[in-house]
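In this supplementary section we document a worked example of the pipeline. Step one takes a protein sequence of length 418 as its only input; no multiple sequence alignment statistics are reported here. Step two produces a three-dimensional model, which step three serialises into structure tokens for compact storage. The input and output of this example are shown verbatim.
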Amino acid sequence: RVCACMHACVCVSADLTCIACSLGEDQYVSLVMFGNVALGLITKGTSTLLSVINFPPYWFRFLINGLLMLGGLLGVAFATNFWVAFAAILIAGSSATFGESLTLGYLRNHDRRMVNAWSSGTGFAGVAGACLYIMLTCIAGRIVSNDTSRKHGLMSMNRISFLSALPMVLVYWFAYFILIPRPKKKELPSIDEKDPKTIQDVEESVTAHQSRRSLIEEAIDEEETKPLLSSQHVAPAMELRHSKLSLMAIRIWRCWKLTFWLSFNLSAVYAFEYTVRSVASQARPQIEYNPLACPELYSALQLCYQAGVFVSRSSLSLVKIRRVEVLTVLQCLNMVVWILQAVFKFLPVYVLPSYMVFVGLLGGASYANIFYILRTDWKFPDADREVCINLSALSITIGRFIIIRPWVIGVVPLSYCS
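The serialised model returned by step three reads:
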């Protein structure tokens, strides 16, 4: 689970603005941030469609996602101009969004308690990725410290940092093809054969579960065969109302209605917290942001955010929150405070790290609890659970895509590279 997200966290925790600055394209700083999530709607939509048709097999999807990771990291490391780097950022961002939906859907075949392991793993990936980037930039900063060209120094630092993250691709493949056991068919709970009451309870539970599934399957079969059984209206094959394509659309619509409220909250939380993470680069006077410093302030704040995410995503075994809308409201208030901080800079620098931890705590708690509800609540039928999970994962990308960018309306000045 750590490997699935760590390469993305290295990129996100990085001061991505250094990429634009090192290539002499200061005006495209916001475009770099946008590129990291630009294709998320397409990749997560594709993942949802693959879940519906159940093709291709998971091993092939993991293989392709690893190749996307590899291409993104290499592309950013060896980019000779901004547009090559931007294309590589699109690929790396696609890998992150597709890989998240892929793994969440894959968890449907495992024990439900694996949701806690996945959430904790993604949280740790954020911490590890941020620490790795800070460590690599500190080392790279020493290597290029004597370089007379600031632009060349930033380019060398980025190249060293992203090339050092390449082994994560091999670890990712090793984890999914060798380390993690293949999912097994659901087994009945262990029972005492001498205890008739226990056996009866298990049988009743299994019967109820099978009844729920059969009702869903019968409903689908009924919808599919109803036009074919009608002797009064015989339409050409292409004009059949309930074709396989329409059944897929009906299924997606049904899942969307089931997950709307959870998806809305997840999307809003991500929009709010990614706005906070973006304006963190303007939370203090620009003189305090030095890309060659160890650690650099922006990267240090990202590490604090990831630490909060890790703690809250690992908390499912201790506390579970069903009123996720409370987390959404609190994160909205955080966003407002950070935007005001970017404009007026009224909070001292020593307050910002702990405040960023709090932002991470809320974001991680929303993520972990929403996906726990999706994985365990009987409101979501097992036959549709993977599709419901993928649709909710798609809302994360929507939240990142509609991120509130204050500099677009001129609230926060854009001067990263000054």
